[in-house]
Inverse folding.
């Protein structure tokens, strides 16, 4: 069973006081009997008592093991790849399971982007040899359905029965469930409707793709069951309640940026925890900010707004790693952070199967952190704003009547000069070729805009880099360099999300959380159009509309945002932006 060790320094008494209050108020029993008054005085608050089905999953989900094993056995040997089409809570958990437990099944590829260049990069996939899992709780997620239509079309071109290559995971009776039955999917799995997406790791959303990837699900669920038993224990012995009290009380004291420092074996887990924290707590002007994958700094350069969470490998697995010369430096780094005065949470695990316990303990912990903060942890009231504005941008950028669905969206008319700078054109001072446009860019104006943006950032803020880009190893490296440059120039923490993925992960925090955030939206020209079959739009129009919708939503929430057009060969625009930020430091 996982162990949690808290070093909270002067905040220890606050955490102990919270645990004593929970013990006196019978909070553990109230959680397990689904008492909504843990979070709201109004027991009829929507999406509260009816979103606690995740508590039952460690007990209920083992019933899926037989059908999942039968599904695995039914997949012919010539299938060589597994592609998961989903967003946010419908896709993050199976990606973590596949990367952490590394089974001997089909290699899993997650597709959660609408960028045309990223889709063109997937042309290596052979649909005739691929299983596609289409995952959406509502069954109406526009990104997931657009990706389904794209890959259905590709599959139908090469096989007679494309339905045999598709599996759906969704809520009972959803449009996706109906679609799967109409088109003869290999299987349609319906998940419990009283489980929200970000709490669905131990439901069919997490388990079906993980089974096909060959994960040891019996061990995963056995560990989850032990964690559920431990989370019924007295609060002082209860890992979920300890985690919740620590996260909540540290956030109330100003330590609201949860920064992950993890051993390589657990490197995938923070991406899942990021959504759980951000979407559950980022509302009503409050929120816990997950900081994932941030380039490290010396301990004395961090502000007094952090708590560091370390995931540590122990026992036989750690000894085996040392034997092979793979010593983990995470404990030494946590020791240094603690010595510098920062609170730390050390979570010790014996093996990869304890991922099941880790999921459940974090679900309990984040739910109870919501109780500390006085917020509703199971809804996402601000997510719909960006979706609504994206739909409006799509409508405003639609093709003229009778025109091509590939027509350019009229987005330039919707983004003012005050909202956007362009780093794609050739700028003479960077030593490149002459400009491609006869109108020379205002280099001094661009530099001034970047400097003004950075000057508005306070050290206690966080800078959310929102990359509506294609991704890839080189680009990810440049974005890491950009994050380090931003931190060096401002002293603030940084987060990174790819669009539209982050809209389903941290988007709620961005609009509903505390007013200590600024936003750097990165876009490019998205390359050539890729039509979405069975629709009148393209992926290029879709991702552009999603970027515009989110920018407008941030404006409506009075957030400071700068939109920068990057792109060009070899990351030219990103390299220029990094240089401008470094020069402004």
């Amino acid at each position: 069973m996982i162990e949690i060790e808290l070093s909270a320094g002067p905040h220890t008494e606050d955490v102990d006081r919270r645990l004593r209050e929970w013990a006196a108020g019978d909070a553990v029993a109230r959680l397990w009997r689904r008492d909504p008054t843990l979070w709201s005085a109004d027991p009829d608050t929507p999406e509260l008592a009816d979103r606690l089905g995740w508590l039952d999953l460690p007990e209920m989900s083992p019933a899926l093991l037989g059908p999942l094993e039968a599904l695995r056995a039914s997949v012919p040997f010539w299938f060589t790849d597994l592609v998961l089409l989903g967003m946010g809570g419908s896709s993050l958990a199976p990606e973590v399971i596949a990367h952490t437990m590394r089974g001997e099944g089909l290699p899993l590829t997650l597709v959660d982007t609408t960028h045309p260049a990223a889709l063109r990069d997937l042309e290596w996939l052979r649909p005739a040899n691929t299983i596609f899992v289409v995952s959406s709780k509502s069954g109406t997620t526009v990104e997931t359905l657009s990706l389904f239509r794209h890959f259905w079309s590709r599959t139908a071109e090469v096989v007679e029965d494309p339905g045999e290559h598709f599996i759906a995971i969704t809520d009972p009776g959803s449009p996706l469930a109906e679609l799967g039955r109409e088109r003869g999917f290999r299987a349609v799995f319906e998940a419990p409707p009283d489980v929200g997406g970000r709490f669905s790791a131990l439901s069919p959303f997490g388990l079906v793709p993980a089974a096909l990837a060959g994960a040891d699900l019996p061990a995963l669920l056995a560990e989850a069951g032990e964690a559920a038993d431990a989370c019924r224990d007295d609060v002082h012995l209860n890992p979920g309640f300890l985690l919740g009290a620590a996260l909540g009380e540290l956030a109330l004291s100003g330590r609201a940026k949860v920064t992950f420092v993890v051993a390589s074996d657990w490197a995938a887990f923070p991406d899942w925890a990021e959504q759980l924290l951000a979407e559950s707590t980022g509302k009503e002007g409050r929120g816990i900010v997950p900081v994932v994958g941030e380039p490290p700094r010396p301990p004395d350069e961090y502000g007094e707004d952090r708590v560091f969470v370390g995931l540590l490998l122990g026992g036989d697995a750690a000894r085996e790693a040392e034997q092979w010369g793979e010593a983990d430096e995470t404990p030494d780094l946590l020791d240094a952070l603690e010595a510098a005065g920062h609170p730390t949470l050390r979570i010790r695990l014996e093996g990869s199967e304890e991922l099941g316990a880790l999921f459940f303990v974090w679900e309990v912990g984040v739910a109870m952190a919501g109780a500390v903060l006085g917020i509703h942890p199971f809804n996402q009231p601000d997510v719909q704003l960006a979706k609504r504005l994206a739909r409006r941008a799509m409508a405003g950028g639609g093709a003229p009547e009778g025109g091509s669905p590939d027509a350019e969206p009229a987005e330039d008319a919707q983004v003012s000069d005050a909202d956007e700078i362009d780093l794609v054109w050739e700028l003479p001072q960077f030593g490149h070729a002459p400009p491609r446009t006869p109108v020379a860019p205002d280099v001094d104006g661009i530099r001034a805009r970047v400097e003004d943006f950075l000057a508005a950032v306070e050290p206690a803020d966080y800078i959310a880099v929102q990359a509506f880009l294609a991704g890839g190893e080189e680009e990810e490296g440049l974005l890491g360099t950009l994050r380090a440059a931003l931190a060096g120039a401002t002293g603030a923490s940084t987060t990174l999300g790819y669009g539209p993925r982050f809209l389903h992960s941290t988007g709620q925090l961005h609009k509903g959380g505390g007013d200590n955030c600024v936003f750097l939206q990165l876009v490019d020209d998205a390359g050539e159009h890729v039509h979405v079959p069975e629709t009148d739009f393209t992926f290029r129009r879709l991702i552009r509309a999603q970027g515009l919708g989110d920018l407008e939503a941030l404006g409506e929430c009075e957030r400071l945002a700068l939109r920068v057009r990057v792109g060009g060969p070899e990351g030219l625009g990103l390299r220029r932006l990094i240089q401008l930020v470094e020069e402004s430091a």
User: Anything to note?
Assistant: The radius of gyration is 24 Å. The CA atoms of residues 296 and 324 lie 25 Å apart. Residues 319-325, 397-413, 427-438 have pLDDT under 50 and may be disordered.
